[in-house]
Amino acid sequence: MIAEKISETTKRHFPMELGINEKCANLDDVFIHYAEIGKGDPIIFIHGTGLDCRMWEDQLMYFSKKYHTVAYDMRGFGLSGRLNGGKYSTSSDLNKLMDLLQINSSNVVAHSRGGRTAITFALEHPEKVKSLVLGGAGINGLPLSNEFKEIKYEVTLIAQKLEIDNAKRVWINSALFASALKNEVVMKKLREMLNDYEPWH
């Protein structure tokens, strides 16, 4: 039954020579694209807004020497599908993915929007989280900083005018990516992911 819900994928994020396995998991209402490499204790990586599992390439390769590393595209990002209407839960998506991959509990590393998913998941399923590492995580119930509110307002305003490319440009050049702007290699990868992102959230 589980094997039937995991399938090969024709589209890839990573070069074949890296040895990263990429597959598609059927969560019933959506297909989730994921990448995995290595054996051992699992680490699951969750990306932030406008990005996808490509942001974790270096971490996948480094930690796969001792761990079973997994990164996935959240619903509506990267190569994963989206739900046309209806409610969904990103923490439920993570839970279903872990069940399909037969991962009983895992270390979880998450960034930004992915951090919000990870926190919710840890609260709902504490027995499935060995450790939690968060970077710039959003936390439900806490007010946003004024700086973030301003950025979000500006990006939303531009996007509502259907100037999506403009909105992406404002987003990636905002203070949120200040440290990344100093590294051309990192910025190149971020731009590639953001260019591929089709905003619908």
From TrEMBL:
Domain of life from the UniProt record: Archaea
Keywords: Hydrolase
InterPro entries (UniProt xref): AB_hydrolase_1, AB_hydrolase_fold, AB_hydrolase_sf
Gene3D superfamilies for this protein: alpha/beta hydrolase
SUPFAM superfamilies, alphabetized: alpha/beta-Hydrolases
Cellular component annotations (GO), alphabetically ordered: membrane
Bilayer-crossing regions: none
Domain AB hydrolase-1 per the UniProt entry, residue ranges: 42-142
Molecular-function GO terms, alphabetical: hydrolase activity
Name of the protein in question: AB hydrolase-1 domain-containing protein
Organism of derivation: Methanosarcina spelaei
